[in-house]
Write a structure and sequence with these properties.
The chain is an all-alpha fold. The chain has one domain: Growth Hormone, Chain: A, CATH 1.20.1250. Helices cover about 80% and strands about 0% of the residues.
């Protein structure tokens, strides 16, 4: 890479951002959009499994006669296994490609869904949940990476946010499934809730093989002609495709004037030696990128979204809602809200920028979590039902979900999938996803114990404190990436002046 040339490119991009900040977002290429949509179906499956488990746990506990600790383990074990899956997915996607890694994720999840739907006893149910978790780890790592690598800089925010939108849509479908199948006989209802998730896995496994491979992965394999052909399909103009191709060649350490169709590439371009460059001998920019990715994934769940999504029926019950139907309906409302506002976020990401949305989102979450903690504390210490506290608790939950969905939720996946250099991207993203799943599992498996120890209001005050730390971290460690090509990210993280500019809204 030529530093001076790349620095000039970044400086030109700075001025373009300032002059063109009010312009309409770039038109999305239809084929790139189709690729991102199909690749994101795996995220619907994961979201469904998360959402449906929130209600299914009520029926599983009653049917299989399990205790709260077993419920916590059942809820959280998926994320522990997803941690393993995400770490394996990074190397797998470098070896067999982004597209076939999605196929692997679908097959693994299908097997897990069948076992969960069968679920004659707790051990079989846990086995299915563990297998599904490995598939989830693959899905969470590969869907945003695939979307990011087929997107242009001007549309990457919208397309890379699709997996998070699909997760929310899946959660909503899971909540609706709870409400519909919850009316069936006890032994049948929850098994249908869990087993039906296998159907879209089959559809996805066949659909994704019709989609093109990531051109960036093809370049890393030395398959230049194929990469260039796909870039012409997923770019709006020939000039854009040529420019993107040259940028990818430079980022891969290849001659940008290379005219060969297929070339031999070093093993380092195929994913070998990546862990050393990420963890043992990272350059200063890569170190900052890794810290940013790990931090944003940690705070996404450390601020309490999993507690709200997975245990919302219990939260509403603590607030004073007694009817099982009303509990499930209120939970459906959480899913609708989450989905709608992530959809709003997809239109804002490439216009308002990642940083501005992220800071606004986290600030709103701090207010909502503090209010929820206060209301639940008042309800818990009152001997009679407090209608105002019940109402405000529900409002606080919805406000929290709104602010999370408009910023931190989708931006976590967009940001972490776009900041790593090309040859480090798959495995770097897998580290972030592993941290994400570990944090998610910790919250899932400990929330009931935490609120029993410090009260449910105290638990949400704790999440509010984490949100304050998150805001501080985002302000100092996450520069703006809106409008940057994937090949420019090292430059964004390499100099302090870039960070300073981003704080002033320039980058």
């Amino acid at each position: 890479m030529e530093p001076e040339k790349h620095t000039d490119m970044v400086e030109k991009k700075d001025s373009m951002e300032v002059e063109g900040s009010s312009e309409a977002p770039e038109k999305i290429n239809k084929i790139a959009l189709l690729c991102a949509v199909v690749g994101s179906i795996i995220s619907i499956i994961f979201g469904y499994d998360t959402g449906v488990m929130s209600g299914a746990m009520i029926f599983i506990k009653e049917d299989l006669k399990i205790n709260d600790v077993e419920v916590e383990v059942l809820a959280g074990i998926l994320n522990i296994c997803a941690l393993v899956g995400s770490l394996a997915a990074g190397r797998t996607s470098d070896y067999i490609g982004r597209r076939y890694t999605i196929v692997v994720a679908s097959i693994i999840f299908l097997i897990g869904s069948i076992l969960m739907g069968y679920g004659p006893n707790y051990p079989v149910l846990m086995t299915g949940r563990c297998i599904a978790g490995i598939g989830v780890g693959f899905a969470l790592m590969i869907a945003p990476v695939y979307s990011a690598e087929i997107s242009s800089p001007g549309t990457r925010g919208r397309l890379t946010a699709l997996p998070e939108l699909c997760i929310s849509l899946g959660i909503l479908l899971g909540y609706v499934s709870n409400y519909v199948f919850g009316k069936l006989p006890l032994t049948l209802g929850w098994r249908l809730m869990l087993g039906i998730a296998g159907v879209p896995s089959i559809v996805l496994a066949f659909g994704i093989v019709k989609m093109p491979e990531s051109p960036r992965w093809l370049v890393m394999q030395g398959r230049l002609a194929e990469a260039k052909k796909i870039l012409f399909l997923i770019s709006n103009t020939k000039e854009e495709a040529e420019a993107r191709f040259c940028d990818i060649l430079v980022a891969a350490g290849l001659d940008e004037n290379c005219k060969e169709d297929v070339i031999e590439v070093p093993n380092s371009n195929k994913g070998e030696g990546v862990w050393k460059e990420l963890l043992l001998r990272p350059t200063p920019p890569v170190r900052r990128i890794l810290i940013a990715a790990i931090g944003i994934h940690f705070f996404e769940h450390a601020t309490g979204i999993e507690a709200v999504v997975l245990y919302s029926p219990r939260i509403f019950k603590k607030a004073g809602v007694r009817s099982k139907d009303k509990l499930l309906l209120a939970t459906v409302g959480v899913g609708v809200t989450k989905t709608l506002f992530i959809l709003v976020a997809t239109f804002l990401l490439d216009k308002a920028g990642r940083r501005r949305l992220l800071l606004t989102s986290t600030g709103g979450m701090i207010v909502a979590l503090t209010g929820l903690g206060f209301c639940l504390t008042m309800v818990e210490h009152s001997k009679e039902q407090l209608t105002w506290a019940l109402s405000l608790s529900i409002v606080a939950v919805y406000v929290f979900v709104v602010f999370f969905s408009i910023g931190l939720g989708p931006i976590t996946w967009v940001y972490s999938s776009e900041i790593f250099p090309l040859k480090l991207r798959a495995q770097g993203t897998s580290i972030g996803v592993a941290v994400n799943r570990l944090t998610n599992a910790t919250i899932s498996m400990s929330f009931l114990s935490i609120y029993k120890a410090i009260t449910i209001g105290g638990a949400f005050f704790m999440f509010a404190g984490m949100a304050v730390l998150a805001w501080i971290f985002f302000y100092f460690c996450l520069p703006e990436t809106k409008g940057r090509s994937l090949e420019e990210m090292e430059m964004v993280f390499s100099k302090s002046k870039d960070t300073n500019k981003s704080r002033n809204g320039i980058v």
